[in-house]
Amino acid sequence: MSSSFGTLFKIATFGESHCAGVGVVIDGVPSRLPLCEADIQVQLDRRRPGGNKLGTERNEADQVQILSGVENGLTLGSPIGLLVKNKDQRPGDYGSMNQVPRPSHADYTYRAKYGIHASSGGGRSSARETIGRVAAGAIAEKFLRETYGIEIVAWVSSVGQYDAEAVDLETITREQVDAAEVRCPDRAAAEKMTEEIVAARAAKDSIGGVVSCVCRNLPAGLGEPAFDRLEAKLAHAMLSLPATKGFEIGSGFAGARMRGSVHNDPFVQKAGRLGTSSNRSGGVQGGISNGEPVYFRVAFKPPATIGQEQQTVDYQGNQTVLAAKGRHDPCVVPRAVPIVETMAALVLVDLALIQKMRS
């Protein structure tokens, strides 16, 4: 199914950007895991719109409701249903755009595939769909944290031409990330990034960026070669997100410029286990976690919907000018941070449960 993800810890998201609500059904959550709506709400609050001047003006509370699978604060082992109602809907903003496919948006491709597309907003291609992912990923995070001590932290590492200084992968925290609205822990770079996003909004334009992520305290052995390698599953998860255009892990494309004598990670003894003195592998070798921090980067393009007039054609091929209306993020990366974290959690929990079956 195109709306499903996972093998043992399996999710199916539902809903469009301007329908009555969005959500997710999760199958495979282990029983007796302590869980309440507040556990899920934390990450939903971090991704919700209307939080600051850098994002969309759409103001949604995004309050999650647990519909099933939890009783007296414990998971039952049965499917968990989660719902978030859409309240600040303005489908009328899109009336004039129904007959014009927005440049670089999914209007045309959805119509080409299904013969129809949502008449307001981005439908299933909207970032509103990621609410279900974040809600499910918050549960995955809790299980990983309480079972393995796994920590997942993402941050904005670039916006436009501005890059953050390298962070300490062993110590970076979400509190440090959230100290700036743009979610960059480098204070000087965060100020430049903020200025860049504000300038793009003022120009009725948009801008792209990169989110970096580290996953700490993974046990060695997660990943299912040959086709479900850990980095392949992470790439699948990240490139399934709206607006993503690139993924790299460890040294990434920079590693292609190195010699093996420089790129190799020598093994050393670390606190009673084998570890590596460097980590250009990004915590993954042969598609399997090696016990070092797993770190990767995800590139997000500039949001396709902008307020500037653009020369284009309608569905009949007639020349027209489009100036998109509606409320849209001038840059998605600040709000993408918790989405990247929770998608990583969904990958890791699935692989952890698969590996547990071998023990």
Secondary structure: elements and pairs:
Layout: E1 4-5, E2 10-14, E3 21-27, H1 37-47, E4 64-68, E5 70-71, E6 74-75, E7 80-85, H2 107-114, H3 130-148, E8 151-159, E9 162-163, H4 174-178, H5 187-202, E10 209-216, H6 230-239, E11 244-249, H7 260-263, E12 267-270, E13 273-276, E14 284-285, E15 288-289, E16 294-300, E17 310-313, E18 319-322, H8 333-356
Antiparallel strand pairs: 1-2, 2-3, 3-7, 4-7, 5-6, 8-9, 8-10, 10-16, 11-16, 12-13, 14-15, 17-18
Let me know the CATH homologous superfamily: Chorismate synthase AroC
Rg, nearest Å: 21 Å
State the separation between the terminal residues, measured CA to CA.
30 Å
Strand segment tally: 18
Class inferred from helices and paired strands: alpha+beta
Please identify the oligomeric state: single chain
Q: Could you report the average pLDDT, rounded to the nearest whole number?
A: 93
Shape: globular
CATH architecture: 4-Layer Sandwich
Numbering strands along the chain, what is their spatial order in the largest sheet?
Answer: 1-2-3-7-4
What is the class in the CATH system?
A: Alpha Beta
Strand share of the residues? 15-25%
Number of helices: 8
- What are the low-pLDDT stretches, counting only 5+ consecutive residues below 50? none
